[in-house]
Amino acid sequence: MSMRYRVLLIVLLLAPALARAQRAESIHELESRRHSEVGSPSAGRADGGGESLEVDGERTEPSSQAVPLAPRAMPLAKRVFGWVPYWISSTQWARFDWSALTAIGYFSLEADSTGVARSVRGWPAPALRDSAHARGVKVILTVTSFGDPSNRALLSDAARRTRLVQTIVDSVVGGGGDGVNIDFEVVPGAQRDNLTAFMRELATTLRAEIPAAEISMAIPAVDWSSAFDAVALTADGVCDYLIMMGYDYHWRNSPTAGPVAPLAGENLNVTRSVDTWLATGMTPSKLLLGVPWYGYEWPTVDQERGSAVTGEGRAILYGDARTSAATYGRLFDEPTSTPWYRFTRRDAWYQGWYDDSLSLALKYRLVNDRGLGGIGIWALGYQGDAVDVWQGIHQAFDLPMAIADDGAAHAPHLAVDGASVTFTVAQGMRVRIELHDVLGRRVATIVDGDLGAGTHRASLPTEALRPGVYLVTGNTFAPATSLIVRR
């Protein structure tokens, strides 16, 4: 075979991977650029940075000095990190279930190729920061840098790396933050060692100022350029964890419509990505699975699953996607474990693919099965007024608890004339246990208060309940425990 044809064959074989690697922006970059272009107000300027914030009936007044990080009232078995983009309003913050979060990542300080902050986008957003701290949730500054040219210029120059390290440390310390999350996307493979060196320098410098600083990185689902050394990045106290962005498997410019985050069923999928990262030898508990609270809607050739598209997709938020699925008919794609819907408008077909409480629950099961450290969420505020996303987190990651009826355990628990909840608290903490019906509506609060260490028992008000199935949920156990009431 001639050299010319060998080269042609190699190009043809690599074409799919190269096209993927050079494709359009990730959802992080796409949304960041879009909101920058339309001039979305940053939280620190016009949308809550200096306002008081009311959550759960309590009002947090922002101050020049950060409210200290309070002990968590409701500990979780896993880390739950959620990005909060600067364009998310204070009205949406008020809908956060803080008990379902361990840390938020304020998105973002935008770094340029010289190591200077192009924009801080309202950081430190005092009302958001103080509200999170008051509820035991860490506030992490996310730092972004997008694109091969910018990352190459930044990481290849030691002086520029050091300049950015100092920019980040000054911003985190000055803003009363608890750590940093680095989101560098499209990093060239030649900068692999320099990226690790940058993270080591950042960890050393930041922890000299904040010894307990939480340091993490966003990493791609598929590391096309082999730029991220997962073992080195999580060794010797560099990163506490890495968040694999488990989405964008279908994207804005995809040639076909399909799942943003297929659990399985396609050549590239979430399960395969997780297993590939674990195969590097990294510690599973240092890997978090990033999950999407968004989807995409594309114009398509026809109604068939995975149809070719006729134009660019548009990102749809969790709350909007759920509404559209209810309007047009929710479908569930069994091979990929993801929901979707389809509809016509002006004689043209459209398909929307997204994640809902069921598909997310299946991803949380993967987290538990693989022993991962938890989840990351893109993005908080995208859920709208939906509460099922929060309930799903509690059901997957709350600490375990036992149900007892005259000393006997049942699964599900069977209550005839009465029942009680027995649970153990390892150390003094605030405990909240609720009873919900199968539609997710709270029908009773069983426990809500500070309890000391030890075993506790609380009665369930079965005499006031109609016959049926109920769920006992709380911050001291997982998953939710079924309760059947009969007469």
Based on secondary structure, the structural category is: alpha/beta
CATH class of the largest domain: Alpha Beta
- Counted by DSSP, the helix tally is 12
Q: Approximately how much helix is present in the residues?
A: 25-40%
Shape field:
globular
Q: Number of domains in the coordinates?
A: 2
Strand content: 25-35%
- Any guess at the CATH architecture of the largest domain? Alpha-Beta Barrel
Beginning-to-end CA distance, first to last residue: 81 Å
Runs with pLDDT <50, length 5+?
1-23, 43-53, 402-417
Averaged pLDDT = 86
Radius of gyration: 24 Å
The CATH topology annotation of the largest domain reads as: TIM Barrel
Strands of the widest sheet, in order across it, are 3-4-6-7-8-9-10-16
Strands, total number? 24
- CATH homologous superfamily heading of the largest domain: Glycosidases
Largest sheet: 8 strands, parallel, barrel
Question: In words, what does this structure look like?
Answer:
There is one protein chain. Helix 6 (158-174) packs parallel to helix 7 and helix 11 packs parallel to helix 12. The protein folds into 2 domains: 25-394, TIM Barrel (Alpha-Beta Barrel), CATH 3.20.20; 399-485, Sandwich (Immunoglobulin-like), CATH 2.60.40. The protein has helices spanning 3-21, 27-38, 90-93, 126-134, 148-155, 158-174, 192-209, 230-233, 270-278, 318-328, 357-370, 388-397, and strands spanning 53-55, 58-60, 79-85, 103-111, 117-119, 138-146, 179-185, 214-220, 241-245, 287-292, 294-300, 314-317, 331-333, 338-345, 348-353, 374-378, 402-404, 413-415, 419-425, 429-437, 442-451, 454-460, 468-474, 481-485. The protein is built from 12 helices and 24 strands. By secondary structure, the chain is an alpha/beta fold. 28% of the residues lie in helices and 29% in strands.
